[in-house]
Design a protein that fits this description.
single chain; mainly alpha; two-stranded antiparallel sheet; 3 helices; elongated
Length: 156
């Protein structure tokens, strides 16, 4: 049975007779000199002899390990049960949440109107119409963000 191995330099598959195991061989493609490995069956018998005659530390590889815990079974929760709990919580606190949304929204609207009027009148008198629009946009954005912050904080 021939020995099959690859060249360490060009990776070409080489084939030599069993009698050449352990000798130097030259790759016909790249010329690299290397040692011919032992045939596979010889390696298996050496490995098997070593394993039979040695005492390994620790448990044998086939020894049973600790018992596995029983498999987990997930609890199935229906969509009606999930929405039912959410609706129960909402029904208990819907009045304060709705009142907070209306109050904060109304105050935000009043503040935005006030800022817009102040900016529009003062900057229009000075002859800066585009600047007035920019200030109004910034004031509107600030009050809108403040409104969102207050509304989210009220219901959580």
């Amino acid at each position: 049975m021939p020995i099959l191995f690859r060249c360490i330099h060009c990776q070409r598959l080489l084939r030599t007779p069993d009698a050449t195991a352990g000798r130097a061989a030259r790759c016909p493609q790249c010329g690299t000199v290397m040692t011919v490995p032992s045939p596979p069956h010889a390696q298996d018998s050496v490995t098997q002899a070593w394993q039979e005659g040695s005492s390994r530390p620790g448990p044998e590889p086939w020894a049973a390990g600790p018992a596995l815990p029983p498999p987990l079974h997930p609890t199935v929760i229906g969509i009606g049960e999930t929405f039912g709990r959410t609706w129960t919580i909402f029904r208990a606190a819907w009045r304060p949440c709705l009142l907070a949304v209306f109050i904060v929204g109304f105050l935000s609207f009043l503040a935005a109107q006030m800022f817009e009027q102040i900016a529009l009148v003062s900057l229009h008198r000075a002859g800066r119409g585009p600047t007035a629009l920019a200030v109004i946009a910034v004031a509107w954005l600030a009050t809108a963000l403040f409104n969102v912050w207050l509304q989210c904080g009220q219901c959580m």
